[in-house]
Design goal:
Chain A has eleven helices and no strands. By secondary structure, chain A is mostly helical. Chain B is α/β, with parallel strands linked by helices. The radius of gyration of chain B is 24 Å and the shape is globular. Chain B has a six-stranded mixed beta sheet, with helices on both faces. In chain B, strands 2-1-4-5 form a four-stranded antiparallel beta sheet, with helices on one face. In chain B, α3 packs across α4. Chain B contains eleven helices and 14 strands. Classes of the chains: A mainly alpha, B alpha/beta. At the A-B interface, α1 and α4 of A face α2, β6, α3 and α5 of B.
Chain lengths: ~260, ~300
């Protein structure tokens, strides 16, 4: 990573950290995690399952919201406010700029996820008074959530490179929803024939397979997550994010800055 | 030796839903800026000044043509480290302080950490922001942002500085400070290329100016020559309408407002004009060289093509 990418990434991270909207999101996420033990009191016997489901869903929702809404404005805000001009008039490539912005937001989400994970384990400790070996399994589910975030950030960047912020948000959200049901889409594609089968198969490859990255229910019921799945998901997510971010760079490369 | 050579740069925008309507942003522009000169790029709003600067900065792609800066292709990354740019009405990351912002831009320009530590305080002092170095930029006025903008444009000690409307929106004090700064940059041997529609600024600062209108270069002139041409004409103002018939003999139009009249005479006619006024019992108000030489040139160049078309 060049020093320019590092500097742009750090500036993006610093901007997000100093942005009060981001603090509010984290605050609400932590509040939700803190409320989980109280909900557990209501549902006798399933406190741990409920806590894991609720906390990881909160981490997922807030992470996805940040990925989409900060992701779509990463470059468009710079163009709109013209803060990009003094950057690109320097020896900084457009690819370096996009990659730096991407790394900055991914870093922000990593820190947020770590903070929320700490909040979750604190809530779990308060509720169960002790940690078991199975609790460590939850980290895999959180890691998969983070992989979802890096895929969604890349998609938000890609859409924002050629469409308005509103449309970019809509497209990114649609991809997230479609990706969450990627398994069903693949099953439908396998059953379909003719033109709709071809379309369904094409869609199933284009849409990110976020279903495979959601193991919240499995870890909450102490089911084993194979190491191969961790490897496959890591490889798949990095490849998908790289492809989407490269698309964003290609489009941005040719774009005139108004 | 040229600092900037613009070799037929052209920009045509495609607009409309189907992108089929063409709008000319800049017609094939050929222009050379000499090393060490202050060059003014003049034109009304929408003339194509900002388009030219954006093309040179690589912010937009040309439809045709090329440019060379410091004898290298203008899009070469190596060139970018040797030039500075102040965009029009600059806006910077408002979550940063000027020190943080300059450190950020300095790193991107390849300035070493040691040099940044040394230069940033000096530069803030030079643009009059030494005491606001740690104040977030969101609290800055337009004039203060402009000064930060100038600081970031010269932080890496560029050889050529491009400034897009550097005095726009500034109060008289701010304009004076920016003028002084441009003059000091020039004294340091830097080439300054700046766009403006404020003619008095261009007249005070530039060695040469180019006039642009509707995306087309209308003329290039040396300021000193314009001023010299103008010194040969004087405006005579007097009180007393009785002298008007005699003053008509100088052949120029006479403007009358109540008891006060004025006309333009050649340098060789000044003495005779004064004697004519005295002999007609008129009271002399003033005799001044005609100002606004650049203004006349500018208006003439703007109007030339329209007159031909008409």
């Amino acid at each position: 990573m060049t020093i320019r990418i590092r500097v742009i990434a750090f500036n993006t991270f610093r901007e997000a950290v100093r942005d009060r909207v981001l603090y509010n999101l984290v605050f609400f996420a932590l509040l939700l995690v803190a409320a989980a033990p109280l909900l557990g009191e209501i549902s006798i016997g399933v406190q741990r399952v409920l806590l894991i489901n609720l906390s990881l869903s909160a981490i997922s929702i807030f992470g996805i919201v940040i990925s989409i809404f900060v992701g779509i404005s990463l470059v468009s805000k710079e163009i709109e406010k013209r803060t990009l001009y003094p950057v690109l008039s320097r020896p900084v490539g457009r690819g370096e700029f996009i990659f730096g912005k991407y790394c900055g937001l991914a870093g922000t989400l990593l820190v947020n996820t770590i903070a929320m994970t700490a909040g979750f384990y604190l809530a779990l400790l308060i509720m169960t008074r002790t940690f078991t070996r199975a609790d460590a399994n939850v980290l895999i589910a959180i890691y998969f959530l983070f992989l979802q975030f890096i895929v969604i950030i890349a998609l938000a960047l890609l859409f924002s490179s050629f469409s308005s912020p509103l449309l970019s948000a809509l497209f990114s959200l649609s991809m997230f929803v479609a990706g969450t049901f990627a398994g069903d889409l693949r099953a439908f594609a396998a059953m379909s024939h003719g033109p709709e089968g071809v379309l369904a198969r094409a869609a199933s490859y284009i849409v990110p397979n976020l279903a495979s990255l959601n193991v919240i229910t499995r870890v909450s019921h102490d089911q084993f997550i194979p190491a191969a799945l961790v490897g496959y998901n890591t490889f798949y997510s990095l490849l998908y994010a790289a492809a989407a971010a490269s698309g964003a760079v290609l489009i941005f490369w040719r774009r005139d800055l108004k | 030796m040229f600092a900037v050579e613009i070799l037929g740069l052209e920009k045509i925008y495609t607009v409309g839903f189907w992108r089929k309507t063409k709008r000319v942003g800049l017609k094939s522009l050929h222009l050379e800026i000499l090393k060490g000169e202050v060059f003014g790029f003049l034109g009304p709003n929408g003339a194509g000044k900002t388009t030219t600067l954006k093309l040179l900065m690589g912010l937009i792609s040309p439809s045709a043509g090329a440019a060379r800066i410091l004898n290298q292709p203008w899009r070469d990354p190596a060139v970018r480290a040797r030039i500075g740019f102040l965009p029009e009405q600059p806006y910077f990351y408002d979550h940063l302080t000027p020190i943080e912002l300059l450190d950020y831009y300095g790193t991107l320009s390849g300035v070493s950490a040691a040099d940044r530590r040394l230069r940033i305080p000096k530069l803030l002092e030079r643009v009059g922001l030494a005491s606001q170095g740690r104040t977030p930029l969101r609290k800055f006025s337009k004039g203060m942002l402009q000064r930060v903008g100038i600081a970031q444009a010269v932080l890496h000690e560029p050889e050529v500085v491009f400034l897009d409307e550097p005095m726009s929106g500034l109060d008289p004090v701010g304009r004076r400070q920016v003028r002084d700064f441009i003059q000091s940059l020039n004294r340091e041997g830097k080439t300054v290329f700046f766009s403006t529609h404020i003619l008095s600024d261009a007249e005070a600062l530039c060695h040469r100016v180019a006039v642009l209108n509707k995306g087309e270069l209308r003329g290039v002139s040396v300021i000193a020559e314009l001023v010299a041409q103008n010194r040969s004409r004087f405006e005579v103002v007097w009180q007393g309408t009785a002298a008007i018939p005699a003053m008509r003999n100088f052949g120029n139009e006479i403007h009358v407002a109540g008891e006060v009249a004025r006309t333009i005479v050649k340098e060789s006619q000044v003495q005779t004009a004064l004697e004519t006024l005295r002999s007609n019992s008129a009271q002399l108000v003033s005799v001044n060289p005609v100002g606004g030489s650049l203004e006349e040139y500018f208006l003439q160049k703007l109007g030339e093509r329209e007159n031909v078309v008409q």
